[in-house]
Write a sequence for this structure.
């Protein structure tokens, strides 16, 4: 995942090759894990299993709060294949401490990595 300014090519990037960087793996119900092999780029990727006993549970990966003087973009690749695939949502916590849905995709998306690039107006994120 990476954050990119809309006007500048600077990035705060985490490839998840060895760690979660500054992302918080919030194991409220089920934790995310780093897996090796089959990633879109590099060797590792962040993974969670949403089937079986994990059905209908939340999997939270949260960023720290960013203070920005201009908008940025959250860019990431996701892979969602399966007959009972759930939802992937990106939520932003605004200055009024209200969560807003910034991105949502549901169900099986096929057997390929898909790219998402979401404008962020300076909020804390949960993926």
């Amino acid at each position: 995942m990476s954050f990119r300014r809309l006007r500048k090519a600077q990035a705060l990037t985490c490839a998840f090759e060895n760690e979660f960087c500054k992302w918080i793996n919030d194991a409220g119900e089920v934790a995310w894990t780093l897996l090796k092999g089959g990633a879109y780029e590099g060797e590792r990727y962040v993974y969670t299993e949403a089937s079986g006993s994990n059905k209908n549970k939340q999997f939270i990966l949260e960023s720290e709060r960013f203070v920005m003087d201009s908008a940025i973009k959250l860019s990431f690749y996701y892979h969602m294949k399966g007959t009972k695939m759930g939802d992937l949502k990106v939520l932003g916590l605004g200055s009024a401490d209200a969560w807003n849905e910034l991105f949502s995709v549901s169900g099986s998306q096929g057997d390929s990595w898909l790219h998402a690039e979401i404008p962020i107006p300076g909020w804390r994120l949960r993926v």
Observations:
- Residues 4-10 have pLDDT under 50 and may be disordered.
- The chain has one domain: 2-126.
